[in-house]
């Protein structure tokens, strides 16, 4: 019998035992739905991470972190000024291969007071490059922080669209207005264009020049900064660049190595590691579910074969070969698993909608991926085939005489 | 000319330590167009002979020719090919598939023969031959025993077989239907069909034109002149 005929026969056989077939499909349905939803969650998380990773400078960015100096330098550690704005200027002057150098002094949560309203935001003292690296774009009629602002410690401020709306009602009215924060008056010079992918913390940031932040808000003898970053032009430049940075900073830190140049390769690797462990553990769960589903189908097939020994005998007597019987039963198992797989894919749509409500948007968008559906479907076909093979071989090997006599 | 030649056919089974000689040196010719009845008590080897003639089994030793070809050592797939293309079977219990329609049941040997012939037309022709065309879309369960056996005969005819094997075809039928089936067989033989009938029923065996008597794995004797003079003897053997 042709394979198409076997499939048609399989569909008929299954539709004559609807409830039994549905029960045997449940494992496959759950397995495929779980697989598709898991891949959706992991891929969503990954794309969320990539977005954040790109928005904070990408793989080309290096961070200069504060670190304990080596033990032999510890008696002199106090001689180092630690990371200061001087480092920022020194790096700009000494590292021509860098695309951008950025520095930041974070002031954490600070109240902003307009003439009528008050709003708490994260105040960040930054350099001009931060706006390029983190992709903050200005609304028309405003400007970002400039080198001049940093040099002159001007009292200028950039608000996000959200903050501007909450303080002034209309964000386009904000430019030129004044804000008081911690007793210092600032003039608003720009408002950041909103972006629907903005995370919770992105939309609650307020920017002033880094020098202004140090001058007005730091302790009198504290001119340290919190973040110092260098973005390379190309990934290949990173090793050279990291040497140059180290030599430059050793000069400004008076020979004390109280810093580390950290590339983000490690960060990326850590995340990829995390992704792998997610894929393995979630994939393992899905695989076990599919395996259980396959065992369910094999079980039903074996039961159905012992019920149908006589049918097998009759078919063989009128000329069916072992391979015809084999194809018939494998096709039946395949039809069960393919229908189960399709139902599973439909179920996964609902499951993903459900998961979307539980996972915060800025942690990644849970998305249905066609690739995951393809995998799920392929797996269900493979499972169906494998679970059909053993019962089908058993059926194909039945001797025609014994099968025909079977009552 | 002989359709089937059996030469010193033996079939031995191992049952534990004992060897059962189901057939022990059978030599027999089945002529083209002949109509034979196989008679013999239970355990005589009659069924084993049927299985060999029906390509469902193979001999332990000896030679079997079908249409001039040596078929004593065929693979399972090759035997299936003969069953699909050269043979027709009629069984005591009809052996129709309950989930298939009458038409599909009759068409089944053609499906397995992988023929490009117009299967439905051939199946309808075969059903017309047994006068069952009015029920082609019914299921076997909706038919009476006599009707089911006629459908089974249509299935045996559909691939235009060289040989029809009927294994106790009347065992489950009432007298009226027995007559009808036997008339059908007579008509087929008159058209040149080779037919072998296995039966316990002497009245049924009377329709055949020769008798093959099996006992303890041996042939007791076959008479070409008709079964009548063998009946008293054969009748005793039935007991």
**Topology of chain A as a string of helices (H) and strands (E):** HHEHEEHHEHEEEHEHEHHHHH
Q: Residue-averaged pLDDT of chain A, rounded?
A: 88
Domain unit count of chain B: 1
The oligomeric status of these chains comes to heterodimer
Q: What share of residues are in beta strands of chain A?
A: 15-25%
Summarize the structure.
The complex is a heterodimer of chains A (407) and B (239). Chain A is α+β, with helices and mostly antiparallel strands and 407 residues long.
How would you sum up this structure, described in words?
The complex is a heterodimer of chains A (407) and B (239). Chain A is an alpha+beta fold. Chain A has two domains: 188 residues, no CATH class; 203 residues, no CATH class. In chain A, 55% of the residues lie in helices and 16% in strands. Chain A contains 13 helices and nine strands. A six-stranded mixed sheet of chain A has the order 7-3-2-8-1-9, with helices on both faces. A three-stranded mixed sheet of chain A has the order 4-6-5. In chain A, helix 3 packs across helix 8. The longest helix of chain A is centred in the C-terminal third of the chain and has 43 residues. Chain A is elongated. Chain B has 239 residues and is an alpha/beta fold. In chain B, a hairpin with a 2-residue loop joins strand 9 and strand 10. The C terminus of chain B is likely disordered. At the A-B interface, helix 1, helix 10, helix 11 and helix 13 of A face helix 2 and helix 3 of B.
